[in-house]
Amino acid sequence: MTGKERRGELVLITGPMFAGKSAALIAQAAAHGPDALVLKPAFDTRDGAAVIASRDRTRVEALAVADWPDAAAGRTVLVIDEVQFMVPPHYAGDIVADIGRAVAAGARVTVGGLDTDYLRRPFDTITRLSACADRHLVLRARCHICEQLAMWTAKKTETGKRLELGDDDLYEARCEEHWTEPAR
Length: 184
Prior knowledge:
The protein is an alpha/beta fold. The chain contains 3 helices and 12 strands.
């Protein structure tokens, strides 16, 4: 590296569903305008193939990916949503290594995702990113039962799938007191 090159930055935003992670990422993308390349997993089709949308009705165009895109080369700002879905069979490669290379090349990368699944098991991708993040912002939602701060995502009905797209039809945010395993 020459004296003019510098390492970028990795910012990780985590929390349960309904915590505002996508809204925070959309705000980051908007702050950087056309300099930001926004990525989402191709697996996540809830809001359309080329959009990240938040419950606050903000939206941003995104590139749906199943592997690291050529379009990311040389970009100085990357914003990535739902990174917990970027694992096989939904993603070819190692997203943590891909992000690490982008940061080493000088990019500011802001990544969002669920820190745990509906059984409160950590996602390996998030654990690995947390270990190398320059900043880690942990958001909380409001418990769907009591309105207290919620740190967990609860699944209403057991489907046998760890990675499953859904919204309030399938998931709720829950506090420690009200979190339960899904009904069978």
